[in-house]
Amino acid sequence: MVGIALGRPWVMAFALTTCGCIHHISEEESTVGEKTLDCVIPPAAGVGELRTPISLEYPDSSLWIWDSLTTDDSTVVANASARVPNASTVCAAGPTLTRDATGAPLSLLELSPDELADNTARADGRQLVLAAHGGLVSDNVGYLYYEHTLIGPGVFDAEILGTGLCIVSDTARPCERLEVNGSTVLWPASEWPKNQGGLIDGERAFLLGCKRIASFDVPCVISSVPLGQIRDPSAYRYFNAFSDWVEAPDSASVVLNLAGTVTLTPMDGKYAATNLDIFDATFRLRFANSPTGSFGMPIDLFREQPPTNGFTQGGHEHHALRASDRSLAFSYFVADTGARHGLHLINFELNGGLE
Amino acid sequence: MRAVLIFGGLLLLPASSFAADGAPSPPAFTWLGDARGIARSWSASRDALTMNLTIFPRAVQTAAGEFAMFTWRRPMWTLRTGFEGLIEVESDAETAGANSGPWPSGKGKMLWRGSYGYYAAAALDTLGKRICEACVLEFALQFRHESEHYAGSNAGDAGEDVRHEPYVGDDLIFDGALSERAVDWYFAQRAYALWYLPGRSSYSAGGAFDLHARYTRWQLVHPFASLYGEYLFGTELQGRDFPDAHRLRGLLGIALPSTLGDIMVYAFADTGNRYGIRALTNEATIGLGVRLALGSHPGQ
Predict the structure, then answer these.
(1) Mean pLDDT over residues B116-125, rounded?
(2) Is A351 in Cβ contact with B164 (below 8 Å)?
(3) What is the pTM for the complete model shown?
(4) Residue B104 DSSP label
(5) Contact A354 B94 (CB under 8 A)
(6) B94 → closest Cβ in A16, A22, A30
(7) What distance in Å separates the CA atoms of residue B276 and residue B166, rounded to the nearest whole number?
(8) ipTM entry
(9) Which candidate, B113, B202, B97, places its Cα nearest to that of B151?
(10) Helix, strand and coil percent figures for chain A, each rounded to 5
(11) Inter-chain touch B239–A355, beta carbons under 8 Å
């Protein structure tokens, strides 16, 4: 009895501590820099919700292109675009869509009359669509790479036909789709796409292309072409780590393999690949000494609000919208309802001397 | 040559002598001995240089020790100088079961950190006794290096880049300690000033304190309480701006004393930054641990 009486406090103390608990208080912010801007972009006049755009980066602005926008009268416009002069403007007033003579959003990349007629005539439930994938700008001319895809009849049915190139000489007008031997498919589906942007280094253009070969297996390769031959599909070569430049797609070296959007971009005298990790909504940066890599260990920049369902969307880097030479500008979309719902633009200022 | 002669002379000093009251006093010069005049093994810090096992909420195993390579006793002071080393392995997740042994285990990564240091400590014996008859006063200067790591998976999982996490690196630590006895109680206090070598740490400077109280009436059991707190000022390292860090940790338990040291069984509560490559996380925990603290326990 005495033992029990003496034992009780010890038993209680033991029970309290052996159920040892952890109360999480906080997690520190990024150590490599800080956000200098984080806004939800207001919708453009006359259209519904803005999803994540791809872009062409001009010296003075970023040309944002949406695969589809729905206007207030429920018209769906493919490949609508807006010239975004700087981050503060688009954060304050939203993007100013490029419009045609009727005032409707202009489709920067549009199907030809023959393709439209073919779509109308099809009886198999499939439709040809063009999806802009970004590219690069040289001498104020945009080179927009895009995918030809047959979609339907089921919701998830899609057949990729191959990649095309559209020349954006005037952002107020539809771009000029290049044709070779009567086809706008310049690179068949068996080749690597050019879908994650690119950059110019010296007299060459470098493009990053990633292909989903399994659920979360998305290898990326670099293709390159002399700027003077950028309109010639046969002049493009793939980077091979041992042979430098090769023609065969299956000889291309995989430089990255990341689930989520990747952007190849110049950065502070180096080259960088930015990435939005779709699993934990973390933006990451990898430096390289050349446009072809090798890309170093990922540097965690900052973490965003992970969605309650599905994955984080977007994550392209827009170097024309950077606040300074040492910052990065990202767009991404928060699908969850609430104050942070919508298309975000973030400027992230990196610390100097980052290794 | 002169230094060699002096050192040789030290070795030839009598192995023991007798104090004025007739009690045997310790040798004037000895190799390998207690690290400090005022032990640190009771500290509530996770950096305490002991053999330690934290069972809850996470399994943390520490193998550490500090030793005086030699002790040189003079009439007014005692100099001890030596080295210390620590390796600590921590389960990233909470304790969820027991390995064979049994031994507490948790899922997730195995985090570990290691440190070593060199020190010189001077106990001002005469000055200490002027404060009180049973007082000890000691100052020490220490160089310490610590690095943080995690154990890779045997299954070949992808590595984790932890450059964004704080790096303790190299620092100089100056500390001053005072201990005293009052009837059946023993008290010890220590204050630390830390200065980190520029470009070698994600901290620039800091301060810390150690408090300890134990009841020494019974020969076989000493109830004790310890409290440790530190504040470290973050700085820039390799382009990364590191935030300040703070930690407060208290132990409450019993020490089972022997001539070798203490077995300490304790409950603890802490708040502040985690250690190692999780130091950007701020949390509060309570748990249970056991410690083998080698070295003369302060109640002796």
Answers:
(1) 97
(2) no
(3) 0.72
(4) E
(5) no
(6) A22
(7) 8
(8) 0.79
(9) B113
(10) 15, 45, 40
(11) yes
Rounded CA-CA distance A124/A117 in Å is 14
- Closest CA in chain A for residue B93: A22
Question: Is B10 inside a domain boundary?
Answer: no
> What single letter denotes the amino acid at residue A140?
N
Return the number of other C-beta atoms located less than 10 Å from residue A47's C-beta.
19
Range of the domain at B159: 37-294
Give domain status of residue B29, yes or no: no
Which of A6, A11, A17 to mutate: most B Cβ within 10 Å? Answer: A17
Q: Retrieve residue B281's tokens.
A: 């996380």
Is B48 part of a structural domain of the chain? yes
Tell if the CB–CB gap between B94 and A353 is shorter than 8 Å. Answer: no
pLDDT at B3: 55
SS3 A311: coil
Domain count of chain B?
1
Measured between CA atoms, the residue of chain A closest to residue B58 is A20
Q: Please enumerate in sequence order all residues whose Cβ is within 8 A of that of B81, keeping only pairs 6 or more positions apart, or say none.
A: B68, B69, B70, B118, B119, B120, B121
HSE-CB of A129 using CA atoms within 13 angstroms: 18
Q: Does B239 sit within 8 Å of A353, measured CB to CB?
A: yes
Residues of chain A with pLDDT under 70: 1-19, 355
Q: Within a domain: residue B265?
A: yes
How far is CA B280 from its chain centroid?
22
Contacts of A22 in chain B (CB under 8 A): 57-58, 94, 283-285
- Tell me which residue in A13, A21, A353 faces B238 most closely, judged by beta carbons: A353
Residue B26: predicted pLDDT? 78
Domain at B217, CATH number: 2.40.160.40
Which one of A14, A20, A27 has the shortest CB-CB distance to B281?
A27
Q: Give the span between the Cα atoms of A317 and A52, in whole angstroms.
A: 11
| Cα four-point dihedral sign A177, A180, A182, A183 | negative
